[in-house]
Write a structure and sequence with these properties.
coiled coil, disordered C terminus, alpha/beta, DUF899 domain-containing protein, 242 residues
Length: 242
């Protein structure tokens, strides 16, 4: 794809826009560039973190790649989840053992990761872990259409508590983690929950295109919250919102 000379890019507004709009858009472009630069600085600081702790050799349960098959299930070590990659991107799905369904917002995030899975796997292993028992977890993954995404259950282990993917009372916590292989061990590099230390949300919103697109709209994101009662079926883009 050819690109125009970056020294003379076209403006970001259509023909016919008045000067008031053009001036405001130029000012907004400056703010957007500042945001880009800040995101880059934060990413560099994230990569420069000192090594985190070596993790225990946790053992999860995993089923066949085909989500329609219930058996056979097997134990799988944390180290095995890297599957030949140097790193593992892990999503901690908020799905408690006694819950009937996963967190709607978590499911939305995983929908997005599933959609770009072929691209992510060029760089890192990817897996979703939840504390729900494996049959319940796999049924949810099947209903969401997460074919090809590695799904493992941490049920019966201390993994969620140890990595802080749950509160002391057992309440699950949406979170992402990046882990690295070190021989037969796995080192923790980084985790980010969906909320910041001040209690505010948007901790991992940059990882979902949904929030970024909503922020472009005149209405913004408002107080919208994802739901489990709609699916991305063919033709859904032409359906009225529920």
């Amino acid at each position: 794809m050819s690109q125009a000379d970056p020294a003379t890019p076209p403006p970001s507004w259509p023909v016919g826009a008045d000067e008031a709009y053009a001036a405001a858009r130029r000012g907004l472009a400056d703010a957007e560039q500042e945001l880009r630069d800040q995101v880059e600085r934060v990413a560099a600081a994230r990569r420069a973190l000192p090594p985190g702790p070596l993790l225990a050799d946790y053992r999860f349960t995993e089923g066949p790649v085909d989500l329609d098959r219930a058996e056979p299930s097997r134990d799988v070590r944390l180290r095995e989840l890297l599957d030949g990659h140097p790193t593992l991107f892990l999503y901690h799905l908020m799905f408690a053992p006694d819950a009937t369904e996963a967190c709607p917002m978590c499911s939305m995030w995983v929908d997005g990761f599933h959609g770009v899975l072929p691209h992510l796997l060029r760089h890192t292993a990817v897996a979703v872990v939840a504390k729900a028992p494996l049959p319940k977890l796999r049924a949810w993954a099947r209903d969401r259409g997460w074919a090809g995404l590695r799904i493992v259950s941490s049920h019966g282990t201390s993994f969620n508590a140890d990595i802080r993917a749950e509160y002391p009372d057992g309440t699950q916590r949406p979170m992402v983690s990046v882990l690295r292989a070190e021989g037969e061990r796995v080192r923790h590099l980084y985790s980010a929950p969906a909320s910041f230390p001040d209690g505010g949300e948007r901790g991992i919103d940059l990882l979902s295109p949904v929030w970024n697109v909503l922020d472009l709209l005149p209405t913004g994101r408002g107080d919208w919250y994802a739901s489990n009662d709609y699916t991305a079926e063919p033709g859904a883009g032409r359906s009225a919102p529920r």
